[in-house]
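Write out structure tokens for Acyl-coenzyme A:6-aminopenicillanic acid acyl-transferase.
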Amino acid sequence: MVPWVERPAIGVDYDLPRSVRYLEMQRIIGSETRDLLDAVRAENPTVSRWLRLFASVIDARTIWRHHREAVALSRVIGVDWRELMLAAVSYEYVIGMFACSTVAIATEHGPMIARNMDWWPERELARASYVFCHFRGQHTYYSASWPGALGVVTGMTENFALAMNAVGSPEGVRRTGYPVMLFLRRVLEKARSFEQAVEWLCRQRLAASCLVTVVGDKNHERVCVERTPTKAVVRRPAGEDPLVTTNSYQKMDADSAGLANTLLLTSCSRREALEELARQLGGAPADEALLYTLTDGRVQQRITSQHVLMRPATFDFRLFVPRNLLESDDLIE
């Protein structure tokens, strides 16, 4: 039995009225979504006490762009809309709990991203994970997410795919910067090319540091945008070599800081292992081979909650979660 389980997809059509837009989501929402929000809330009691203030600040910083959606989703899920807004910026205020291992590979059919999302709380997140297919007019994008999520960590459009890894820097968190996960969603919604996505990721002032791997539909379109809140450097692979990102800067002239020591200590070893394994895959790697690479003991972490495969050239997006994190037979089915 393979150590992963593929997750189903949910469609969200933004051209529909909000009263019917989330009906498909409403049918599948169970206790897993509320358990995830409860876990996030329990870890951040101070934030919870200041819920109204923090949520309003985030709302204003994003020009109330996500307010109506947060309210509509909160009614479907049965929580305060402010909790969804805070979950969308969870990266900024608990950055030390996140990791991720990502590789951008050149293949015979164009570039692809294979990545582990190492994100807390891993069990609740795995159980609530779905592929979301977002429709707006003629534009479609995918994300690996959970019901009620406003931000994006891993996503793909018809023209490019992106995946964010955590990194800390001496700049810390900038309250006036754009929340990272909400900005990645904006890039997926509005950018219409690989080049435009990279440009926006370099230009925007962000609330926190991050590493964003981006690939287009040609093998030379593979980069990692290394970010602090105010600075950006673009890192590219050597020729057809795999481009691997974990949790430390490789080109940026800044110290990686602010992550949990265990994540920093494993960053280099995970990167070296993923580079070695990726070179063994060949020019047309099968999904099973990619998944065994991601679940290798030198790469997968205790908090690995998702395995994602993205191929923009063929518009193929697949999401898997570790089998051991699914406790009940009905979730595995």
